[in-house]
Write a structure and sequence with these properties.
4-stranded parallel β-sheet, Rossmann fold, 10 strands, 11% strand, 43% helix, 11 helices, alpha/beta
């Protein structure tokens, strides 16, 4: 009986301690967040703290609730006066998309800052955990990150070692632009068992000519589509029948809105890209 009483007391003590730790975590977790990228807004909602976001930049449109967040800037820059007025206790910057001098100014103003700038598919998972630590949502972050890592590994294992397919990724049409292996987007091609025909280009997003593409012998052309890249429709590859991708009808239009945003939602359009490349085998 004495042993049972002792065990009960230990259990109660553990519950009280856990409750206290949770309470402290809730008190220290940020309550007002500014998220300066569409992808960080999406990730914060997935972590369950989207209702704490008080400011963001343009194109933060997922989930639907994100459209009601106050917009305080865009790719050209943010309004620092609005940042100050919103009194955030956490600002999630985007070093790959925000102006570096403005990020430095934000830090100099004394705000708590964490950066969200995944540079690879695997970094999506580490970024989720990073944001989970910053917002007190560690358990949820680990769950989401682990699920993403599992699905990414499954897709990679299924396609990466298949017969390589020469792939041209048309990032933009006017001027004609693509991606090199320096761009994290190129990992969709490599993990799907494709070969990026401009992988070795010195810049991440090089301009290329039609002649360059024809000489590459591309077997698949991927033309990512979203509202900003609708000019792709004006570029007519059908006139270049000597290119294997054109001759064999392997021109595809993946969803750029999701594919170019480093969040777990990339899994589904990535599967589509892998299947599109697979059709050329």
């Amino acid at each position: 009986m004495a042993l049972i009483t002792k065990l009960t007391r230990l259990t109660l003590a553990s519950c009280i301690l856990l409750t206290s730790i949770t309470a402290v975590a809730d008190q220290t977790a940020p309550k007002r967040i500014i998220a300066l990228s569409p992808h960080s807004v999406e990730l914060l909602y997935s972590l369950g703290v989207g209702d704490r976001i008080v400011g963001t930049i343009s194109h933060a449109d997922y989930p639907e609730q994100a459209k009601s967040i106050e917009v305080i800037g865009d790719y050209k820059g943010i309004t620092l006066e609005k940042v100050i007025a919103l009194k955030p206790d956490l600002i999630v910057t985007w070093s790959g998309g925000n102006k570096i001098n403005q990020i430095e100014q934000i830090k100099q103003l004394g705000f708590t800052v964490v950066d969200s700038n995944p540079q690879s598919l695997t970094e999506i998972a580490s970024n989720i955990r990073h944001l989970g630590n910053a917002t007190g949502q560690v358990e949820q972050a680990n769950k989401i990150a682990a699920g993403f890592e599992r699905e990414l590994a499954e897709i990679t294992a299924k396609y990466q070692k298949k017969a390589p397919i020469k792939t041209f990724y048309q990032l933009w049409s006017k001027p004609l632009m693509t991606i090199s292996e320096q761009s994290w987007i190129s990992q969709y091609i490599s993990r799907c068992g494709g070969i990026n025909v401009f992988a070795d280009t010195k810049t991440a997003y090089p301009k290329v000519s039609v002649e360059n593409v024809l000489l590459s012998g591309a077997e698949v052309i991927l033309v990512p589509r979203d509202k900003q890249t609708r000019d792709h429709e004006l570029f007519n590859w059908e006139q270049w029948q000597l290119l294997p991708a054109v001759k064999n009808n392997h021109i595809y239009y993946p969803n750029a809105t999701i594919l170019h945003r480093p969040t777990p939602r990339v899994i589904e359009p990535m599967r589509e890209v892998c299947e599109q490349i697979n059709r050329a085998r």
